[in-house]
Amino acid sequence: MREHNPLFWLELRVRVREKRLWLIALFFVGTLAVISGVALTVALVDNGRLEPSAIGNGLVWATLFCQLGLLVTIAPLAAAGRLAQEREQRTLAGLINSPLTRTRIAVGKLLGAWAFVLWLALLAVPFLLVGSLWGGPSLPLVLGCLALNILVGWVLSAVALGISGLFGRSLTAYLATGAFLFGWLAVMPMLGMLALGLHSRGSALYQQCVAYVAWHHHPFIRLAALVDVDWALFGRTALLQLGYALGVWLALAALGLALAVHSLRREVY
Amino acid sequence: MAQLDDHTLTLEQLRKTYPTGIEAVRGMSLVVRPGEVFGLVGPNGAGKTTLLKLASGLLRPQAGRVLCGAAELTGQPRRAARYIGFMPDPLGVYTDVSAREYLEFFARTLEIAASERPGRMNEVIELLGLAPWLEEEVETLSAGWQRRLALGRVLLGRAPVLLLDEPAAGLDVAARSDLLKLVKKLAAGQRAIVISSHILPELHQLADRFGIVNRGQWVEVAPGQVFFSRADIQSGFGRARWLLRGSRPDVVRQTLAARGLAPETAGGDTVAFAAEDEAAAAATLRAVMDRGVDVFEFKRQQVELTDVVLRTLLHEEPPPL
User: Fold this and answer.
1) Beta bridge pairs of residue B85
2) CA–CA separation, B300 vs B280, rounded Å?
3) Which of A38, A152, B51, B148 is most exposed, with minimal Cβ within 10 Å?
4) Cα separation of B17 and A144, whole Å?
């Protein structure tokens, strides 16, 4: 039987020792603790007039959006330098000059990044459970949103790894990843707004096209859509938009991995 | 795993031009047999590292082939890894793991079976004397120990061919001496070893055969000869130089000239000349003494690899203006 991917093994060991990753996790849990503390304080001060479901909902949605924000920022940054760093510290030759296939090298790196995303995501689970049990959204909905967040983190890790493979310096890879994130999460929605504003009398089809191109694949918009979802009316359109977003994300992840593998075909000078 | 016999490294007419247009290697060939240590010498930018990277499969040549025994390895780093252990320069090591984890990682990378891994690691640890440093982070190890660790990575695979690019760079005298002993030990184990180094006195002691590279080509050290041995160096490529210090240097010069030998001044009253063999040198000594010269000192000039390299490169390349 084939053993664990050695790159995954190495990535786990290296990441566990990275102090800054522990600090990020501490900051995340601290933020969630503050949010929970505020919710509890409000509930106590309010003297029972506030609906318990409002507190539960507030806690769950605050946690989920906070988590998505963290994952969208940290997950790609944690993966952004992984291949560029191998080139930079001249360790890539040792990997290429080994029986490992290029795909195994890239997948090992990706699995390391995914494990980190999963760990960050799971840190929020106690807060989500408390919120859900405290009259918040149903557990399946909470778990669905959590899965969406994890998926977004994984997709962004894959994209960042692919970008990382294109560069020989990790700083350049970080900058390129940041530019991609800014473009996807900030510029695309703004361009969509601009397209609608400049052509406000456009047909319904035009508006639909702009919405699909500019923001139906946006992670925060998809999460917000799930928050507001009325399950009784969760019809074809909502399913289509979610399916479209998932399709775009999976395509991005596949492209990222393919880029990472392809980048390893480059000669090591 | 490949056996340690009939794994001759053969490089055939390799050519490599980088995308920048630099012709780094221009039709170089080389054969290194098991048990042989080959010393690769040349100035910076001569093409030594490119040649080693071509041999390891990391670079794809525009022309030529790399073979280990009958196995074709040209531009196939994965396949080459089973036959060739390559220690590059500059050295890349993962700094944020311990020495033990570093070796374990590469043992996994080389797909050594889990049952075989501890034994293989212990063998390398013992050979390189790494035991006291196993739990230290690689980052905290000295340059010498980092190089040993990198060599350990290469040895884990038990490849029959080793390519070592500047293995002694940055090492102190003691560490270089240790490395010398180690490479000799490895060569005794029937490995074919190619070492590129700028530290010529050590390389002189270490290698059985040498080749000088410049501008991507082998340089001739004697007419029609590009590779040479320690014996060739000692014999001055068939014309050893002799040093003679006597009471009347002018008479010595006249005698040498009369015998068709070109006398050269070798500092002070010492006169140098080249002779075909020991008998010719002895006959010349007798002729000088017959002319009434008191001979204070007569010896064969010790020639080092450094002298050969400097002489060859100076002859090959005009000095800068």
Assistant:
1) B162
2) 12
3) A38
4) 54
Under the banding of pLDDT at 50, 70 and 90, the label for residue A2 is low
Structure tokens at A36: 């929970």
Mutate to test the interface with A, among B104, B108, B136 (most CBs of A within 10 A): B108
Give the amino acid at A249: W
Q: How far apart are alpha carbons A184 and A187 in whole angstroms? A: 6
Backbone CA torsion sign across B98, A162, A172, A74:
negative
- The A residues from 3 to 32 touching B (CB cutoff 8 Å) are 3-4, 6, 9-10, 13-14, 17-18
Of all residues in chain B, what percent carry a pLDDT higher than 90?
54
The two structure tokens encoding residue B96: 């944020």
Q: Would you call A84 an interface residue with chain B, using a CB distance cutoff of 8 Å?
A: no
**Rounded to whole angstroms, how far apart are CA atoms A107 and B96?**
21
Give bridge partners of residue A66 from the DSSP assignment: none
* Host H or E run for residue A7: helix A6-16
ipTM of the complex in this document: 0.82
pLDDT higher than 70, residue B102:
yes
Mean of the per-residue pLDDT values of chain A: 88
pLDDT digits (tens, 9 = 90+) for A217-264: 999 998 888 876 665 556 677 788 889 999 999 999 999 999 999 999
Q: In whole angstroms, what is the distance from residue A266 CA to residue B192 CA? A: 28
Cβ–Cβ gap A13/B18 under 8 Å: no
Identify the burial level of A185 via C-beta atoms within 10 angstroms of its C-beta, where 0-12 means exposed, 13-18 middle and 19 or more buried.
middle
Nearest residue, CB atoms, B58 vs list A14, A17, A97: A97
Q: What is the pTM of this model?
A: 0.83
Per residue in B228-277, pLDDT tens? Answer: 998 888 877 777 889 999 999 999 999 999 988 888 887 788 999 988 88
User: What is the rounded distance in angstroms from the CA atom of residue A154 to the CA atom of residue B25?
Assistant: 44
The CA distance from B121 to B153, in Å, is: 9
Which run of H or of E encompasses B285? helix B278-290
Q: Which residues of chain B have a Cβ shorter than 8 Å from any chain A Cβ? A: 18, 53, 56-60, 77-78, 80-82, 84, 86, 88, 90-97, 101, 105-106, 108-111, 114, 153
A14·B108 Cβ contact <8 A: no
How many other β-carbons are positioned within 10 Å of the β-carbon of residue A155? 24
Residue type, B5: D
User: To which H or E segment does residue B192 belong?
Assistant: strand B192-196
β B227-229/B71-72 pair status: unpaired
**Do the chains contact at B59 and A10, CB–CB below 8 Å?**
no
Per residue in A51-81, pLDDT tens? 777 888 888 888 999 899 999 988 998 888 8
Residue whose structure tokens are 């330098």? A81
Peptide bond before A140: cis, by omega within 30 degrees of 0?
no
Q: Is A234 helix (H, G, I), strand (E, B) or coil?
A: coil
Sheet holding B71-72, edge to edge: B23-32, B9-17, B63-68, B71-72
The reply to whether residue B96 touches residue A17, judged by beta carbons under 8 angstroms, is: yes
Taken in order B162, B168, B170, B175, is the CA torsion positive or negative? Answer: positive
